[in-house]
Amino acid sequence: GENVEQHPSTLSVQEGDSAVIKCTYSDSASNYFPWYKQELGKGPQLIIDIRSNVGEKKDQRIAVTLNKTAKHFSLHITETQPEDSAVYFCAASYSNDYKLSFGAGTTVTVRA
Amino acid sequence: NAGVTQTPKFRVLKTGQSMTLLCAQDMNHEYMYWYRQDPGMGLRLIHYSVGEGTTAKGEVPDGYNVSRLKKQNFLLGLESAAPSQTSVYFCASSQTGGNTEAFFGQGTRLTVV
């Protein structure tokens, strides 16, 4: 089955700086790569996703890049703000799959 | 628009006791999931359902049972709780499986003493 590895496990950044989280996946058939944000005491919520037919996707201060050849994808957060402090999960799946395979999560702390 | 609702939000059990966690979704989704979240281990799939009346095992099914008698509800049961089942449990639903957005409940924090 799919194995998703996520790094780093914790990330501390100064407010206004950028944050980057990287994930690798094992199954070359995977073609859907979402990112979820989990705020304290809440369930994960989708913030951005990318499918394998594109290499990059942006939504305001967040962007995701995908390298299918190397089987890795990354989340980029620019101009970080205190409300970006949360746990972020990457995930992967393929067409007709019933489930997502999640990475272990990255705890992001934005220092004021 | 409630989305996915889990009850209860917190529970403390003694070893050997049983309990049922309830998940309800109002989005008419076909797929429903139960995950557990433990520090450093991400979200691990316990059981899932691809439609009313169906259930299947995920990555870590031992010690749990599930039922989906109605499309909107997915129940997770612990027949004889063990300390290793201390965790935060999340229910999720999606319209067409792993290739679309999953909507999560707020979680149930379970402690087994």
Which terms summarize this structure?
heterodimer; A: 112 residues; mainly beta; five-stranded antiparallel sheet; B: 113 residues; four-stranded antiparallel sheet; 11 strands
Summarize, please.
With 112 residues, chain A is an all-beta fold. Chain A is built from no helices and eleven strands. Helix content of chain A is 0%, strand content 54%.
CA gyration radius of chain B, whole angstroms? 13 Å
Helix/strand order of chain B: EEEEEEEEEEE
Number of helices of chain B: 0
Shape of chain B: globular
Q: Could you give the distance between the termini of chain B? A: 36 Å
Helix content of chain A: under 10%
Question: What value does the average pLDDT of chain A take?
Answer: 95
What kind of assembly state do the chains in view correspond to?
Answer: heterodimer
By secondary-structure content and strand pairing, the structural class of chain A works out as mainly beta
Strand residues, percent of chain B = over 45%
Number of strands of chain B: 11
Strand content of chain A: over 45%
Identify low-pLDDT runs of chain A. Answer: none
Q: Write down the secondary-structure element order of chain A.
A: EEEEEEEEEEE
